[in-house]
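Reviewer 2 asked us to include a model.

Predict the structure of this chain.
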Amino acid sequence: MIDFSGLSDAIRSFDSIVIFRHIHPDCDALGSQFGLKTWILDNYPDKHVYALGAETTSQGIWPKSDECTDEVIAKSLAIVLDTAAVNRCDDARFVSAKMIVKIDHHPDVDGYGDLQYVNSEAAAACEILAGFLKSEGKTISRKCAEYIYKGILTDTLRFTTSNTTAETLNAAAFLASHGVNIPEVNRELFDLDLDEFRLATFIRTNVHYDESGLAWLIMKKDKLEEFGITGSEARGHIDEIGHVRDFRIWAMFTEALTGEANRYEASLRSKKAVVNEIAAEYGGGGHKNAAGIKGISEENVNEIISRLKHLASIS
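Predicted model (structure tokens):
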């Protein structure tokens, strides 16, 4: 049982609170961020609360990020969600805040913050946050509950990942009891529009795989431009590859649309094999079964594919 008293005291004592998320945010980052902002304002309406971040995701419906001056951040409580390392934060200004709280479920590779609530056994940052809200016993609106529920639902791939536990399901049930429209949230997050359907068809049609149990796809810049999407948006559909019994590990590599030529970003996934150790060797990171890498060369892509083939063959 996590003791959240320090976080509770910090929220009560600051008039200004600034909430941060990681770069290339997913629904866990956004759900925890907007869920916490909503909860604070529901219970402390006189506080000034800002949710910052330049990027968003195409999955689900989310509010626009706020804007905030350097002067405000310097006098504020900063709460950084779902962000393992300082250099992964979407807005680096959080380091200037008067007090910093870290809430995360990734392996604790960068122990920043005056207060740290890190549980790498949790399936999502939103699972940890649900525990905090439950311990507080204050108002939880439907909007707040739905934001946080979205983060748990997506980070567990609808409760199918290996780190989904009884605690995860209890957290989701607790949130659902506050009015979450479960079918509606599922449709919002997982139904595809026609362009996304075309992309999913392309991914399934063009994926490579071999007897090792590895499946992979490389999307070049021209193909991303043809679909009118970013690499991050393309990699958001990596789970199109993952629902095949024969695939032990699957990966998607996307060429950068801007900057240095022939640079790639990667998303790695697995059913059981530990893939974040390979990601870490190329400057990336993440969970044991879900990791990412930025700024790698075409040569690196081929090396990683070779290493993942070997890992899949022994998994």
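The two ends are 33 Å apart (CA to CA). The CA atoms of residues 69 and 93 lie 10 Å apart. We have added this to the supplementary material.
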